[in-house]
Amino acid sequence: MDVNGEQALLIRKQVKNVYLRIKPPDAHIEITAPARIPEAEVRRFAASKLGWIRSTRDRIARSERIFDEGAAGNGAGWGAASGSPSESTGGNGERLRRARAIIEEQLPGLVDRWVPVVGRGPSAITLRRMTTRWGSCTPATGRIRLNLELAWLEPRFLEYVLVHELTHLRASGHGDRFQGLMDSYLPGWRELRRALNRYVII
């Protein structure tokens, strides 16, 4: 499918919404949409996201340069840790290494921004591919885990998940205290949560 001169792969599935992804390693556009939505409407949706498409492709290209130069390590002082051992082997390894490089490029700035706001910092942040959640936190140890798949979504979602997990260092569960803290840190967090939950981890 042509989207303002960009070629996109349109996949029809039994889903409720239209999902747009940039798929490494070649950064091609993949759109998943329900059969009931006309192609013209899908095309208009994709065209409205061209700015995000270009910025995401730029991040993928930067991660490729970092990977090629051998600079994508865990040098951040806040203690980034590696994920699953399968990341270094198999056909999916390069994709996961690029995802790691993209997130590691953004994380130091986000941590520096939000730790003073929340008032608690993680003992370590682990980046790994997860199939059922975007992030998790163990308050007893201070360890936060973030899903590598966040690399391929808009940066606002990585920020939201990080703030969400940092907040668990102050409030376990999702009760009134947690929600009140999130309201004070990130007033639009509920909208971000709804938008993020429209994505399916595959």
Automatic annotation (TrEMBL):
Coiled-coil parts of chain: none
Kindly list the GO molecular function terms attached to this UniProt entry.
hydrolase activity
* Record Pfam families: YgjP-like (PF01863)
In terms of domain of life, where is this protein from? Bacteria
Gene3D superfamilies reported in the protein's UniProt record: Metalloproteases ('zincins'), catalytic domain (3.30.2010.10)
YgjP-like metallopeptidase domain boundaries:
17-63, 100-198
InterPro entries for this protein: UTP_pyrophosphatase-like, YgjP-like_metallopeptidase
Query: Does the keyword section mention Hydrolase?
Result: yes
Keyword field: Hydrolase
Protein's name in the database: Metal-dependent hydrolase
Organism, by scientific name, is Bifidobacterium xylocopae
